[in-house]
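Open question from group meeting: does this chain pack into something compact, or does most of it stay loose? Before anyone orders reagents, we agreed to write out a predicted structure and look at it together. Recording both the input and the output here so the notebook holds the full record.
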Amino acid sequence: MYEEIQEVRQKNIIVRYKQQLSSAYSTINTSLLVINEADCVGGVRLRDLINLNLYRPDYYDSGILNGASESALLTFDDLLANYEVLYRASTYNTPVYYYTDDVDEHNWIGSSVINYTVLDFTTETTLYDLGLDPNQYKPSYAADGVVQYNGAVSFSALRGLSSINIVYDSIEEPDDPSGIDYPHRFLFLQHNDLGAYEN
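Structure tokens returned:
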């Protein structure tokens, strides 16, 4: 007698890994997975079959499946022949600190951040293209803000900065018999909405 041969069912799955570019996604690599039906007994999750970070580029988020759930429990028959893994550019930020007259913690009047990805830079990119507003905290008594950074505006340069500082030079100071520095006195009133300054 001959033993009945059990059919071994398999599926070939093609996984395309795609990297975000400025206006589209581009395939950076492809993998072929051979899945046996026996490996799917009780259900299987795509995150256990597909290595989502196999081709993850530097400065990009972890891979995500395009149009499919990585955590849903699937049967062998549920598995598709093709999947895409997308890598989106990670967002980074650099703090921006605003000061009156000079960079000193006592002269600090506000903060913001500029956000960017590795895709946001060309040879023509400026800090203003990235959303920097030098007059975001400009006091009424001061000149326009002066950016205290003259270096390269590139992804690597900004990531290497602890902060970007902006300074507002005071253009007038009224009489202040209390002896308290005027910009600080003004900011105390301005930021605390007090009706009058108390000596």
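Observations to bring back to the group:
The chain is about 10% helix and 30% strand.
The longest helix spans residues 182-192.
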